[in-house]
Amino acid sequence: KAGLFTYDPGFSSTASCESKITYIDGDEGVLLYRGYPIEDLVAHGDFLETCYLLLYGELPTVRQKHDFDYRVTHHTMVHEQMARFYQGFRRDSHPMAVMVGSVGAMSAFYHDSTDIADPHQRTLASIRMIAKMPTIAAMAYKYTTGQPFVYPKNDLDYASNFLRMCFSVPFEEYKVDPVLSRAMDRILILHADNEQGASSSTVRLAGSSGANPFACIAAGVACLWGPAHGGANEAALKMLAEIGKPDRIPEFLARAKDPDDPFRLMGFGHRVYKSYDPRAKLMRDICREVLTATRSDDRLFDVALELEQAAARDDYFTEKKLFPNLDFYSGLTLRAMGFPPAMFTAVFALARTAGWIAQWTEMIADPSQKIGRPRQLYTGHTRRDYVDMKRRV
Ligand code: SDX
């Protein structure tokens, strides 16, 4: 059943579950949201259309899209006390630390969403989550920069609203650049879901106990933060900056191949995609567009392109099926849009909330779902007798 966790040794100790939401063919580099190729959704739709599709299983009609957009837009404000909640963080906190705390705090402000047996409450929790995450993420950014919070505006689309809440300042209104808004919207679609990534499994496991949905999403934010997962976009840009120029690439490829060197190519490799991550190709194109639109002379993009090509020519990486993943080009793109590296994973979390809440809803709506209980392979001591303190050496 959807959401049921079963232990399957074939998955080498990972929990597996059934879902109708996202399909990945890692060998062929295929990603489908409810059967629709990611390439089509990015080319023809917008992020809220993808949110609707992930949540309800079908592309919305004109009427359904209008109603959904209206409901999300009219839930983008957060409780004014949330603004005071942020004051408890140090100003130099990482935005993801602020996101973990503030998303978790939403379970206190919207506790009526805990009646998850009620489909209306589940829908309201989903709408609230998708609507408020841009505001929460923008507030985390503003708080850590010392700038005043910017309230959402209902006459802006989802991506434009987020950019404006991040970059508007009292002395200069943010001018929405349609190229950057469209790029941000497509970036959000690319990050919306990816089957049972570690953070999605975290949300499912937390949700399987019946916990408040906001608290479950906060658990997903915490898991996503790690550099092996959603934190890889920040780490990949740091790696590209350390490489600095194409002629240093061989040195770093050698380090990545050295079994005694913990260095890994950040933004490369994937547990499931054993061919090119279909999202990375789309991300590379968006990166090129944004660099052009912002007239960013980002020499690190050339380093990234050369690194990708050098690894593709190296048997070590092709035999281990290590190709760029979603995180390889996203950092370069978000930096060109004006985000500091510390905000890259917050943007990822904002987008992935759509997938997390769709997977949570799928699991909770299944009446037969049980609490998740992954098993273990015990490798410890067999039974042994207690030793009195006096006899221990
Ligand atoms: C995301 O699950 C998802 O869907 C995640 C995600 C999503 O949308 O939710 O796609 C988002 O998290 C993408 C991944 C971002 N992380 C990184 O880019 C960090 C760098 N990548 C690696 O840490 C690594 O590739 C992982 C964590 C992504 C996967 O690690 P695994 O499970 O060890 O990968 P693997 O089993 O495929 O590795 C095969 C081999 C191993 O060597 P051996 O043990 O066989 O000798 O390749 C090696 C790995 O050590 N390897 C790398 C490498 N990634 C794997 N060697 C050098 N550089 C790398 N990047």
UniProtKB/TrEMBL annotation:
Active site as annotated: H270, D327
Catalyzed chemical reaction(s): oxaloacetate + acetyl-CoA + H2O = citrate + CoA + H(+)
Record's signal peptide: none
UniProt GO MF annotations: citrate synthase activity
Record keyword Transferase present: yes
A Pfam family per the record: Citrate_synt
GO annotation, cellular component aspect: cytoplasm
InterPro entries in UniProt: Citrate_synth-like_lrg_a-sub, Citrate_synth-like_sm_a-sub, Citrate_synthase, Citrate_synthase_AS, Citrate_synthase_bac-typ, Citrate_synthase_sf, Citrate_synthase_typ-I
Key words, A-Z: Transferase, Tricarboxylic acid cycle
Recorded metabolic or biological pathway in which this protein acts: Carbohydrate metabolism; tricarboxylic acid cycle; isocitrate from oxaloacetate: step 1/2
Keyword Cytoplasm part of the UniProt annotation: no
GO biological process terms held by the UniProt record: tricarboxylic acid cycle
Family membership noted in the UniProt record: Belongs to the citrate synthase family.
Protein's recorded name: Citrate synthase
Gene this chain is encoded by: gltA_1
